[in-house]
Task: inverse folding
C-alpha cells in the first residue's frame, strides 16, 4: 500500500501521535469514512480535538486520507483547518469520487461508514 510505504519512509518527521493516527487512518478503505471518535477509539485516544489537529497537519494528504474522517453525526466536519469554502468542496469531491454517499442534508449515509475491528479485551 502506497500510504504505508510513504509513512514508513521517514521523509517528513512525524510525532508518535501523528504516526498512530495516520497508520490507523490508512485502514479506512476507499468508499468509506470513519468519525473522529471511532478513529480515537482505534488508537486509544479520547480527544477528537487531538485527532483533528493531527489530521489538520497531515503532510501526506490525500494519500493518507484525512478527508475520510467526519463528525459523529456524519456531517462533514472540517478539512484543511476550515469548515466551509473551497477546502470543504474539495473534501466532498474527494469523497464522492471514492464512492462515498451523501444524503440530501450534506451528511454521509450510514452505509458509507467504516468501523474499526474491535480490539480483544
Result:
Amino acid at each position: 500500500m502506497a500510504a504505508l510505504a510513504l509513512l514508513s519512509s521517514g521523509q517528513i518527521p512525524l510525532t508518535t501521535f501523528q504516526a498512530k493516527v495516520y497508520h490507523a487512518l490508512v485502514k479506512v478503505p476507499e468508499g468509506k469514512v470513519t468519525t473522529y471518535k471511532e478513529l480515537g477509539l482505534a488508537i486509544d485516544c479520547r480527544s477528537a480535538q487531538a485527532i483533528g489537529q493531527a489530521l489538520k497537519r497531515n503532510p501526506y494528504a490525500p494519500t493518507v486520507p484525512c478527508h475520510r474522517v467526519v463528525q459523529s453525526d456524519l456531517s462533514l466536519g472540517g478539512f484543511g483547518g476550515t469548515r466551509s469554502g473551497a477546502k470543504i468542496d474539495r473534501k466532498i469531491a474527494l469523497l464522492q469520487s471514492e464512492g462515498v454517499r451523501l444524503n440530501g442534508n450534506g451528511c454521509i449515509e450510514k452505509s458509507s461508514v467504516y468501523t474499526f475491528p474491535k480490539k480483544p479485551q
Q: What stands out?
A: The beta strands are 34-35, 69-70. The mean pLDDT is 91.
